[in-house]
Amino acid sequence: ETRTQAFNASGAYTGTSGRYEVSDEVTPYVGLVYDIVPDVSLYASYTEIFNPQNYRDKDNNLLAPVEGSNLEAGIKAQLFDGRAMATAAVFEAKQDNFAVRDMTQPESSLPDGNSAYIGI
C-alpha cells in the first residue's frame, strides 16, 4: 500500500493523497552468504523492485508502478573480537517508470523516469 503526503516548496502541508494498493505482486529476493573464515564473510543479494505510485497523468490516470532490480555484493569482517565491523560492497540499482513532472500540465506527471545507480 502506498500513501503520500504533499508539502509545497515552503514546507506547508497541502494534503494527503488517496491510497493505491496492489496485493497480487510478488517481489523475489535471494541472498547468499559464504563464511571465508569465522570472522569474514562474502555476500551477494538480488531483489526486484515494485512500488505503486500515487502520481497521475494529464488524464487523471494513475501511473504504473515503479519497477526495477537491485544487485549487491560485498565482504564483511568482524574486527577486535567483534567490537568493530568493516564492510565493503558494490551495488547496482535500476528503476523504471518513476514519475517525472509533466512541464506542459501543471498538476500531472509522466512515467518517463528511469535510473541506474552503481556504487562502491
UniProtKB/TrEMBL annotation:
Q: Tell me what this protein is called.
A: TonB-dependent receptor
Q: GO molecular function, one example?
A: siderophore uptake transmembrane transporter activity
**Membrane topology designation:** Multi-pass membrane protein
Q: Which InterPro entries match?
A: Beta-barrel_TonB, Beta-barrel_TonB_sf, TonB-dep_rcpt-like
The record ties this protein, via SUPFAM superfamilies, to: Porins
Instruction: List the subcellular locations.
Output: Cell outer membrane
Q: What is its main location?
A: membrane
TonB-dependent receptor-like beta-barrel domain: residues covered: 19-108
Q: Name one Pfam family in it.
A: TonB_dep_Rec_b-barrel
The keyword Metal-binding is assigned to this record: no
Q: Where are the transmembrane segments?
A: none
What keywords tag this UniProt record? Cell outer membrane, Membrane, Receptor, TonB box, Transmembrane, Transmembrane beta strand, Transport
